[in-house]
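From the methods appendix. Each design record in this collection lists the tokenized structure first, followed by the designed amino acid sequence. Records were kept in a plain field format so they could be parsed without special tools. The example shown here is representative of the layout used throughout.

RECORD:
FOLD TOKENS (153 positions):
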């Protein structure tokens, strides 16, 4: 029944666009931070980053930054569920959003029929955002460890 989903289609598109924009903006800021730190390492007489505490710290900071981004994105969806009346309690909206974003789907909280496609779409959004995060974390690791090769030349 597409008619049941029509009222929330616009909101769903806005939420997808907003969460992707938040994610990409966060990744750009994290990448800029990595580049600034890597650029300062020679000034600190750091010549080998790959196995140092610096590389571990950088990767932990990147992973935590990505986790914060995912939390913010879940909060955006949760606020929308509350604002639209899809869920009444903030705790339920937060749990449902996190559960949908990570595509676990076992919270036991159900949306009304007109909101179900929106919840399923959040699951798809989560897959996309986690995929982007995984790719970025891999890039960050290569960037952090790859600097050793450049400095050695």
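DESIGN:
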């Amino acid at each position: 029944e597409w008619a049941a989903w029509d009222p929330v289609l616009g909101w769903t598109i806005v939420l997808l666009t907003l969460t992707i924009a938040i994610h990409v903006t966060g990744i750009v800021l994290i990448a800029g931070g990595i580049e600034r730190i890597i650029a300062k390492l020679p000034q600190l007489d750091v010549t080998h980053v790959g196995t140092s505490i610096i590389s571990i710290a950088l990767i932990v900071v990147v992973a935590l930054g990505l986790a914060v981004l995912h939390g913010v994105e879940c909060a955006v969806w949760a606020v929308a569920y509350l604002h639209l009346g899809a869920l009444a309690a903030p705790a339920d909206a937060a749990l449902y959003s996190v559960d949908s974003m990570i595509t676990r789907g076992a919270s036991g909280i159900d949306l009304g029929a007109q909101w179900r496609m929106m919840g399923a779409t959040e699951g798809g959004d989560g897959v996309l955002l986690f995929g982007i995060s995984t790719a970025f974390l891999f890039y960050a690791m290569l960037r952090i460890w790859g600097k050793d090769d450049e400095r050695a030349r």
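APPENDIX NOTE: The chain has a mean pLDDT of 86.
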